[in-house]
């Protein structure tokens, strides 16, 4: 059974073993089904319906004989966040429906658009039998792209029979709000909330929220002192503190801490920085132990302009704003310390605990 990824299953098949594929990034049905704020509490992780449907259980690089060793795939539901049977059903359905079609359909014949068109009939049938089926696929997903000094927000839904409506002031939208027709170009801090109206029943689904913050360091060259995954998240303009916590939206800081140097590519007047380090909904995170901000005109001589200790960091959560006397500089450096250690049930030992941060905002 291959759950850490696909390579373990591939290697087992090559060696002649029978394999059931159940990779964590596609077939863990205890993960969230959408990023909408009205999703019920779940363990961290995101597996939307489309991600399940596009999963291919037979890995590349296998001979026909080796492919025959892949017996199938399995969806997993760990129930520590599910208080009753209805909650388990909601997490499994309709993702289990998508997985079933994946397993009995040749990869070349899979068609997600067709599946979505047929899904309402299946949902009605399941509900007629008394099952609870999630409507997460009808909700909106927001993503952001940096273009020059602006952030473009894209809104989408897996349900093609929907119209998306949104607001720009953080208020809850409805069918009388602005309809979404093209990417939303943001030149200043903006909180976008969106719902999707199902044209079949007229009902609005979801409560997607994304806050973007264009700033002077947006997508600028970044150098970090230690290996971190996806350092570009630190300067992508997306604020994560008002969303349900998802690992893929945050940068993990280990016990080594973080030394991040940004090249602003010009001498700019600077007077404020911001960063977030506490999750929005459903999850509490460890906080940085200390934050120091320094600036430089040439990258060699550095001047400390702002500092924060544990007490200030805790009081300021979920985000901290550090103001300082205006200074002109080309480079700005963030130093974050992480001294947290705690007992881990999984490791059965005292271990270093990670800190997570979202955006290094520079004004």
Overview of this protein structure:
- The chain folds into 3 domains: 7-128, Alpha-Beta Barrel (TIM Barrel); 139-211, Sandwich (Immunoglobulin-like), CATH 2.60.40; 222-362, Sandwich (Jelly Rolls), CATH 2.60.120.
- The chain is of the alpha+beta class and 363 residues long.
- The termini are far apart.
- It is globular and about 65 Å long.
- It has helices at 7-14, 24-27, 49-53, 64-67, 85-92, 95-104, 112-128, 310-316, and strands at residues 19-21, 31-32, 43-46, 70-73, 140-147, 150-157, 162-167, 178-179, 184-186, 190-198, 204-212, 222-224, 238-239, 251-253, 258-276, 290-296, 303-308, 319-337, 341-344, 349-352, 355-357, 361-362.
- β16 (290-296) and β17 (303-308) form a beta hairpin.
Give descriptors for this structure.
363 residues; alpha+beta; TIM Barrel; Immunoglobulin-like; Jelly Rolls; six-stranded antiparallel sheet; five-stranded antiparallel sheet; 36% strand; globular
């Amino acid at each position: 059974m291959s759950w850490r990824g696909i390579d373990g299953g591939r290697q087992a098949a090559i060696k002649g073993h029978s394999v059931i594929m159940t990779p964590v990034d596609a077939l863990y049905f205890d993960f969230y089904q959408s990023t909408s704020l009205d999703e019920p509490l779940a363990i961290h992780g995101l597996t939307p319906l489309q991600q399940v449907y596009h999963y291919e259980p037979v890995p590349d690089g296998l001979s026909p004989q080796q492919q025959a060793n892949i017996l199938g795939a399995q969806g997993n539901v760990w129930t520590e966040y599910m208080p009753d049977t209805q909650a388990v059903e909601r997490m499994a359905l309709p993702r289990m429906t998508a997985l079933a079609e994946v397993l009995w359909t040749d990869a070349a014949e899979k068609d997600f658009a067709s599946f979505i068109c047929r899904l309402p009939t299946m949902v009605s049938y399941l509900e007629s039998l008394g099952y609870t089926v999630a409507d997460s696929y009808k909700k909106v997903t927001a993503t952001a792209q940096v273009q020059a000094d602006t952030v473009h927000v894209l809104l989408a839904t897996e349900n093609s029979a929907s119209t998306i409506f949104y607001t720009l002031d953080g208020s809850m939208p409805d069918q009388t709000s602005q309809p979404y027709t093209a990417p939303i170009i943001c030149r200043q801090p903006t909180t976008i909330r969106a719902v999707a109206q199902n044209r079949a029943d007229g009902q609005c689904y979801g409560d997607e929220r994304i806050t973007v913050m264009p700033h002077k360091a947006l997508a600028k060259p970044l150098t970090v002192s230690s290996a971190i995954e996806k350092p570009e998240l630190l300067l992508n303009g997306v604020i994560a503190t008002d969303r349900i916590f998802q690992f893929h939206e945050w940068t993990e800081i280990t016990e080594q801490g973080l030394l991040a140097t940004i090249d602003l590519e010009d001498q700019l007047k600077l007077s404020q920085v911001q960063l977030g380090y506490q999750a929005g909904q459903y999850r509490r995170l460890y906080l940085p132990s200390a934050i120091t901000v320094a600036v430089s005109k040439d990258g060699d001589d550095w001047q400390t302009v702002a500092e924060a200790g544990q007490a200030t960091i805790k009081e300021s959560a979920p985000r901290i704003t550090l103001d300082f006397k205006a200074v002109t500089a080309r480079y700005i450096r963030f130093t974050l310390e992480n001294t947290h250690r705690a007992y881990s049930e999984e490791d059965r030992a005292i271990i270093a605990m990670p800190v997570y941060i979202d955006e290094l905002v520079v004004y």
